[in-house]
Write a structure and sequence with these properties.
Chain A is an all-beta fold. Helix content of chain A is 0%, strand content 51%. The mean pLDDT of chain A is 97. The relative contact order of chain B is 0.34. Classes of the chains: A mainly beta, B mainly beta. At the A-B interface, strand 5 and strand 10 of A face strand 4, strand 5 and strand 10 of B.
Chain lengths: 120, 107
């Protein structure tokens, strides 16, 4: 199983960024996927979840209405569209696979992360 | 929303020591709890899920217990590769949440 995030970078406050996570080594559409973030030197914060067919999503209150999670099962890819970015969104963003098929709960494994920086 | 707390925030220990970390949920979460290990510059790694189930490939010196609001991660005999930060996570209800972490460093 391999998860590789991309799309991080520097963006101005109020700007947008789209993160991607390329998955391999497992039947992608059987598994829910998550985004979890970590501000530099800080703890972990769960961001969002999407189930295997993309029909169910959940968000942390801190990103609701600004971030959109999606997936393309034909491309084995997960996405996070981030709009109206704020200074407090600065973090490493990890994608993670749910541990078991059709379950939503545990995160295993995780990708290596991509860094999002919000700065003017 | 469910808030997670951990204690201690850091612990200094020696190789061979028994280390216990506690995690408390702000409301009952049954056994919907996991533990992760994170080393500097690396992504977290799942150790324990369902409060007490050991993830495949994780050494048996790691164990978890608890239910309801109080949980424990125990490392029975600390090894050099165990120096890291440990996080608990609840999956009882959305939004999922993590504890603030416990750093285990060398005494």
């Amino acid at each position: 199983v391999q998860l590789v995030e991309s799309g991080g970078g520097v963006v101005q406050p109020g700007g947008s960024l789209r993160l991607s996570c390329a998955a391999s080594g497992f039947k992608f559409d059987d598994y829910a996927m998550h985004w979890v973030r970590q501000a530099p030197g800080k703890g972990l914060e769960w961001v969002s979840l999407i189930n295997g067919d993309g029909g169910t999503t959940y968000y942390a209150d801190s990103v609701k209405g600004r971030f959109t999670i999606s997936r393309d099962n034909s491309k084995n890819s997960l996405y996070l569209q981030m709009n109206s970015l704020r200074i407090e969104d600065i973090a490493f963003y990890y994608c993670a696979k749910s541990l078991a098929p059709r379950r939503l709960d545990w995160f295993d494994p995780w990708g290596r992360g991509t860094l999002v920086t919000v700065s003017s | 929303d469910i808030q997670m707390t951990q204690s201690p925030s850091s612990v200094s220990a020696s190789v061979g020591d028994r280390v216990t970390i506690t995690c408390r949920a702000s409301q009952g979460i049954s056994t919907w709890l996991a533990w992760y290990q994170q080393k500097p510059g690396k992504a977290p790694n799942l150790l324990i899920y369902g409060a007490s189930s050991l993830q495949s490939g994780v050494p048996s010196r790691f164990s978890g217990s608890g239910s309801g609001t109080d949980f424990t991660l125990t490392i029975s005999s600390l090894q050099p590769e165990d120096f890291a930060t440990y996080y608990c996570q609840q999956a009882n209800s959305f939004p999922f949440s993590f504890g603030p972490g416990t750093k285990v460093d060398i005494k």
